[in-house]
Every structure is written in C-alpha cells, then in structure tokens.
Design a protein that fits this description.
rod-shaped
C-alpha cells in the first residue's frame, strides 16, 4: 500500500489526462453527428427552397420584362429582349 501512495498522484494525473482525451473525442464525435444532421436537413429542404425561387421567378417575370423594356427606352439598349423564348439564358 505504501508503493501505491507513493505513485498515487502520477496515476491520478494519467487517469485525468486519459479521461480528458476520451471526453474530447466524444465531443468531436457529437459535433460531427450534429453537422451531419444539419447537412441532411439542408438537403431535405433544398427542393422546397428551389420551388420557392422558381415560383418567385414566374411571378416576377412580367415586371422584369417591363423594367427591361423601360431600361432599353431610357438607355438605348439593344432591342433584343433576353426574356423572350428561344433566347439564351441569362447567367448572373
């Protein structure tokens, strides 16, 4: 028992370091799981967001065409309307 008492502080310190390392590992694993759940949730809602953007574009297309025509009149822009069918898509 005297030998144990002599090394008790060192053994306790090593046990504390091992416990801290285990706790950090568990914390990292928990964080990875949380991030994975967040990514999966974003993937699940992406079609809904894309649908909302598509609906917005459909609703606002007439006003965008009007603004383009007004801008063309005011600034002498090209007569070619980028919103007409068959024209190449606008890339922003």
């Amino acid at each position: 028992m005297a030998i144990m008492g002599h090394w008790q502080t060192l053994i306790t310190g090593i046990a504390a370091v091992l416990a801290a390392a285990f706790t950090i590992g568990q914390s990292h694993q928990t964080e990875r799981r949380r991030l994975r759940r967040q990514i999966n949730a974003a993937r699940a809602t992406f079609p809904l967001v894309l649908n909302g953007v598509s609906e917005w574009a459909t609703r606002t297309a007439p006003s965008q065409e009007t603004l383009y025509a007004f801008d063309a009149l005011m600034h002498g822009a090209s007569d070619e309307n980028p919103f007409t069918p068959g024209s190449p898509p606008i890339v922003i």
